[in-house]
Amino acid sequence: MKELASRGLLALAAVAIGFAAADTYVVVLALPDMMTAAGLTVAELQRAAPIISGFLLGYVAVLPLIGRVSDLRGRVPVLTGCLVVFAIGSVITAAGYDLPTIVLGRLIQGIGGGGLIPPTLALIADTWPAERRGMPLGIIGAVQELGSVVGPLWGAAILAFGTWHDIFWLNAAVGLAIAAAMLRHRPAERTRGFDLWGLILVGIASICLLLVMMEPESLTTGVTSGLAFLPVTGDSRWLTPLALAGYAFLLAFVVRQATAARPLLAWRGWGEIARETDLWGAAALTVALGAVIVTFASAEPEQAVLADDAVVLLPIAALALAAFVWRGRRAANPLIPRGSLTATPAWGSIAVSFFVGAALIAALVDIPFFARLTIAPDDQLEAALVLVRFLVALPVGAVLGGWLLRHVPAGPLTAAALTLSGACFLVMGSWDAQSLESFSSTVVLAACGFGFGLALAPVNAALLEHTAADVHGLASALLVVARMVGMLIGISALTTIGLRTFRGAVAKIPSVESLCDGESTACGAYTGAMRDAGIAQLQAVFTGAAVAAFIAAALALLLLRRRDIFSS
Length: 568
Known about the structure:
The chain has 568 residues and is an all-alpha fold. Helix content is 76%, strand content 0%. The two termini are 37 Å apart.
């Protein structure tokens, strides 16, 4: 019965993860309209980057803390809480009226969406023995990767009948619905009683603050209702009577939670959790990860690997990381418990995940670029469909990788899978302008995605098998962080290498004046030479991705070994 209940909870968590993963990509189609709502023009695309990087920052920066809390507090409360946070972020984004509020909403969305993964992976480890974890891990990996395919389609379907706001309103509704379904899986001692007054107070506060953000015309133009939207002082909408009423109800809700016998937030016990978690260490690690993410996510590869603010951000990251290490040695209860990741397959899985991310991002970003450069110069949809050949094979590989874990050790299976992806990248590194027109390119793309998918479950399984049950959430969080940081650093480094190749190729091309000389045929030759230079750039990126995949394969073969044979 317990395993059956856990299966139901895992199914809900899988749906939530798939939905959150889709939200990572759904914003791509909605971005132009979101920019318009934020007062930005198409020419100000760089200023809109925080709409995407804000989600990524929230997704990664606090994951270790969320993972650790799930170890101490339990999987269900953290999963439910993350869904509520995701819904709140969706509401703020949907009601956002300028760039800061939209970015804030995306940041909160990222925290909630990313926070779903560690407790879900830990839940699998709690429910299934090591020899039976492969298939559920593969399914979760497949669902997560399927979001990259479903996300744009989901966004396109909504935009066909509504606006970008509707995407995030639906996000909030789905998130809250799944959270409500998860409540039945709470421990029995926490399900008795319900704080109706707390719910009423927070509901009224939320409605007031939402109306402040949305400023519906039917209310703001009313003779009487419009008074609620006039600032008491200054010109900020957050100083209107309606906003002040929202603050008052929110304060009343906080007081209610502190005094109610059965508070809505069930805050009792969190003080003990805080004492068992090194919050200062968690804050230092969050700052370090945040600085690294912003450094690479906001970089302009045409200029450099790092962002212009790297001279400030990287020292901040270094100091914060040093503070985290110092706290880890001195704190009574460090964020990463001492000795929890000393087993070679445990930290080896994290290292493999980093290089997997560095290789994978090259496919996600540069395959569409290659298609635009060669077969679809004026058709973004066709270029995206080329990437779909890669993406659809990922979930297939993930499920098969989970099944194969019953018969093949994690190390060799991961090494073989990533060697396949690396070999495919080498083939892609030799493609020319006509390569995508042949059926063999589809086979190469599908095989490359299949290899990445095949490696997902073995890497997760090796980590969970070689860490203690009381740190599974934290360990899973670190695995996700390593992959995302690998993606950020990988795309910056590989793109910079590719651009150097491009510049070298361009330097060898005669000037356009000397080639054209008024003849259209010669001018066409110059255009073709520039296209070939762009192809050379992407060939260099794919070759670099192959190197990253081969490094990951070698590390997997050396480090992801069975405990019963190789552990000390």
